[in-house]
TrEMBL record, chains A, B, C, D:
Family: Belongs to the Gfo/Idh/MocA family.
Annotated source species: Vibrio quintilis
Domain Gfo/Idh/MocA-like oxidoreductase N-terminal intervals: 3-120
InterPro entries in UniProt: Gfo/Idh/MocA-like_OxRdtase_N, GFO_IDH_MocA-like_dom, Myo_inos_IolG, NAD(P)-bd_dom_sf
GO molecular function terms attached to this record: inositol 2-dehydrogenase (NAD+) activity; nucleotide binding
Gene behind the chain: idhA
Coiled coil: none
Keywords: Oxidoreductase
EC number(s) reported in the record: 1.1.1.18
Pfam families according to UniProt: GFO_IDH_MocA, GFO_IDH_MocA_C3
Top-rank EC class of the record's enzyme: oxidoreductase
Protein name: Inositol 2-dehydrogenase
Residue ranges annotated for the GFO/IDH/MocA-like oxidoreductase domain, each copy included: 128-248
Length: 330, 330, 330, 330
């Protein structure tokens, strides 16, 4: 049984991570750490775990692993502290919004030789995973063009937008990682086009809410991402991979499987509302993977480098958006 | 926290009921009772619960409720013992395969005034429940004709068939209950037609493996059930309700949401393999309901009478099959 | 080029048959015959063909074939006249509503050795034909259970109902023929259950508007038909054939292929409105077949006997409805 | 009745245009003109029309309109000749592959004041037309992002590629026109990325076979086109328009509506094979529109200017591809 310290008792900590840590037969939610005592208390009450300070947790020899789901700007420092304390680390994306800080942090992790897993949970979505597996099995031949459609149901508050790092670093970063995951090669160029169509306050905050990103890969294959901060019909999370012999298409999951046919037409349910619903299985599967990392059976399948590369692509997409030019990549 | 004694440590006890009792925040898997010590031990080890005899469990004042998932021919007696011991009772269908024995048993339950819930889990399937709810909301007007398609992926061993009570009492009984649940009235006639097409040994055992059942209701509405012991493509569990203004159709749930389009055509995944997968949510929901019964917040939504009526319809369908005639019902 | 006389200038004559005769490169719409001069004139004007009396047409040596799409009660007599005149005959179903009259008529046809094709157009629907072909290719093994769902968009006027011969002889007859076509064997029993749910005036006229029919075949296979005079959502024409290895399902054709996803759900188009839309391709294909019959390249694929058998099943379904009993067939 | 001269007796002339001219009640296929006498003869035989030279047709006062479906490099000259002869003109895209030549040609048309319709047939596809209409009705609010997926089933011969003007001018031009049609505004920038993945000989011929194009519009809306010369699964012609309130998605049309469910999964038919099947209704509808132009009831809904603009976008996409930069548009 591995004891886990959970950093961050916000929504995802309460609804996803604490539940998954508790439900896994090999992990124990040992403690929760959060500057907002009220949230920490909720988790402590529900799962009968300790409340600790950062320092207490880092020094506590009973803790085998940490799950960092705190505010984005605390990730890098907590990773470094945990690495120095010799804990295995599961950290929500991103490591940090600033690339230099990311690199610095990853050097510490490397020096301390602790495992670090970055929570790009969508790689563990059964749909997207099946696409990757069937591609690997050669079912559609070589990958040629990937289309990722990724739209949130509705935009976050502008206050969040302001500290988010912007659309590309906050939202697109998942899709950029997905493109790297599916295609299995690093892009050589990126182009981005974006607009503020959903909420003009997002534009006033210096961000965009709608975007298309196009990447090219060394093989000549391409990938396109279509993003919006608001769908109008639920969480839209699809991808289509066109290969030599055909297409693998991951469709949305819908709220139910009941259709209604009347004089007004035929109706079926909207896509699952948002990430908590759509990616429930993915969150469980990534935690299962992390437990294998804890036990030494696996190496982290999503590394600090993956986190760094997704941020790099987000930064370069932003550069393209600002210059109106395709950006060549290293 | 309610302490639950689980009678029956077979597959459904191990994979479904013990897990759901343990996962619910208000129930505790207190003990397991099974003549096969090995199975009981598995559950005791996994959930750290007692192993008891029937007598110990019935006399144990710490036990609030029993979940009966043992062999069919033990249900009635266990219900009676539990009723006399004042325990709330959750029993898998059927109460018994013999109608007189069912009635006798239900009289004991009534006399003891304990709650008895019969595990017609499909009523808690989110799809079928949504059909019922939308019908109740008037979304398709009055119900006119119901079609239930219910096919197992593959037939059980003939040894099982021999003690099963036959297709109607073993398998169709779920669909008969579903028809009563959706239509909200008791049928006035039943007609059945059946064949042995899947496995001739089923026929040699005096049973059938393929059937159509037609029921009429007082309102003039009708219902048809299409059954087979083998689908060839996974567990097929659909229903279509035609009403005044249109149709509500509950489709199958599929193994994933990935399509593949190639020169050979367009493909999507098979329906979920069998009841453990398809009705996972239903099993959890019925347990949640039973906990509300335990706490006095609800009355059993599926009663002993429902169990009796479903068996009655199964018996009458068998009579129709044997006589080749429509049978009038009380 | 074959000269065709069209008997009946009603809607189906105007919209379907005259158009198809004219469009086929090997047939010429030579004349039209109808007691309502106005309708005949419409067709004559549009296609520049003669208007004839029945007698003129039967005696006209230029006419190679007749297409009988007149009122039902004129079919048998026109068939006999055309047979005696040596014309090849295409007749809309039914030959007659009275079985004895049908047999009498078919004897004349047989004596005269002219080809007679009965217009069970649905056998030429590309969807249903594909099901039959894939069954024949062994793609799902042996047929086990067939489900036909057949609902009109809305009921005809009660005046029509009164002369229609009733639901089974007027509407179900197509589905009974479809069951014979798909299964490739003659049923050994039929059971019918029906109600008046759509329009009480249909009940007052002695007919029903909603029905389930179950047939058994010598192989043990079964077929069920679900009928309604009103769907609420367009013309519903589906079938599902369950065989040893799986299902072949012919879905509805829809008005378009555009979906709309909004906050209210996901929507797609209703089924094609009615038979003129849904079976357009079938009407063309059956005429193409009849031209092959005219040229001697084919024998009629749907014979007078097929017409007789479908009527026989309709009559027996009615007997079952009236007696509430399964009826054994010859 | 309008007499039509058909220039070009190649495949599309034989299979589409001659048939549609003949089938329309107000047009008569008067003559066919083609340097390959054999093809012209086929059409003349089938429709009993004259064979003429270009000069004869242009001077023939009986001819009201011309349909130009000849080799691409003859379009501009034939348009000019027909304009000077006062004929109404239906011309397959493109006017010419060279922009200066296009402009010169359109000046002649303008000077002669004859109607000129450019055959961007996809605007008449019932699916895409329905998307445009529902957008206009406000069903999804303002358009925000358009995704066009357009893939041919298999690449043409390299000989064709060499004279085609390249992927953008030959194939993408339809999608560029579709984007203008749906969005209802002129793009302000275009970016293109492309590869040779399907056939290396296409690359050797200086062309590409796979591409992504991104356009921005003055409103901030965007459009993306995904192209391939080979799909692997039939003709893929879809579009998805995301607006303020949701999505309108035009799906593919499939070869039939029959599904097969077996142990290997669930299967449905491939998309219609190619443009002759998929756009049959569109070709008929555009001809119907042209007949309204002939009769003076309508102005051409797709003009020479539309042809010019689509070519302009194709040229600019090519410039983007070559420079690797987004190109600003006038």
């Amino acid at each position: 049984m591995y004891n886990i310290a959970l950093f961050g008792a916000g929504r995802i900590g309460q609804v996803v991570h604490s539940v998954n840590i508790d439900a896994h037969p090999e992990t124990n939610l040992y403690s929760v750490i959060d500057p907002f005592g009220e949230n920490a208390q909720k988790i402590a009450d529900k799962f009968d775990c300790k409340i600790q300070t950062v320092e207490e947790a880092m020094q506590d020899p009973n803790i085998h692993g940490v799950l960092i789901a705190s505010a984005t700007d605390t990730h890098a420092e907590l990773i470094e502290l945990a690495a120095k304390a010799g804990k295995a680390i599961f950290c929500e994306k991103p490591v940090h919004l600033d690339m230099d800080r990311v690199k610095q942090c990853l050097q510490v992790v490397e020096a301390e030789k602790v495992p670090l897993f970055i929570g790009f949970n969508r790689r563990y979505d059964p749909q997207f995973k099946a696409v990757k597996e069937r591609l690997s099995l050669g079912m559609i031949g070589k990958a040629e063009s990937l289309l990722i459609i990724s739209r949130d149901p509705s935009p976050p508050p502008v206050e969040y937008i302001k500290v988010s790092g912007g659309l590309f670093r906050d939202m697109t970063i998942h899709d950029l990682d997905m493109a790297r995951f599916i295609m299995g090669e690093e892009p050589v160029s990126v182009y981005a086009s974006g607009s503020t169509l959903v909420d003009e306050n997002i534009g006033k905050a210096g961000d965009i809410d709608t975007a298309y990103i196009v990447m090219r890969f060394p093989s000549g294959a391409m990938a396109t991402i279509s993003n919006s901060r608001r769908s109008g019909y639920g969480y839209d999370q699809r991808l289509e991979l066109h290969g030599e012999k055909g297409v693998l298409a991951a469709k949305n999951l819908h709220e139910d499987a009941v259709e209604m046919w009347t004089d007004e037409g035929c109706q079926y349910a909207k896509p699952e509302f948002f990430f908590l619903q759509r990616y429930e299985a993915a969150y469980q599967a990534e935690w299962k993977h992390f437990v294998e990392v804890l036990s030494g059976k696996s190496q982290p399948a999503v590394t600090g480098y993956d986190g760094q590369q997704a941020l790099y692509l987000a930064d370069k997409a932003l550069e393209s958006l600002k210059t109106g030019q395709e950006v060549k990549l290293d």
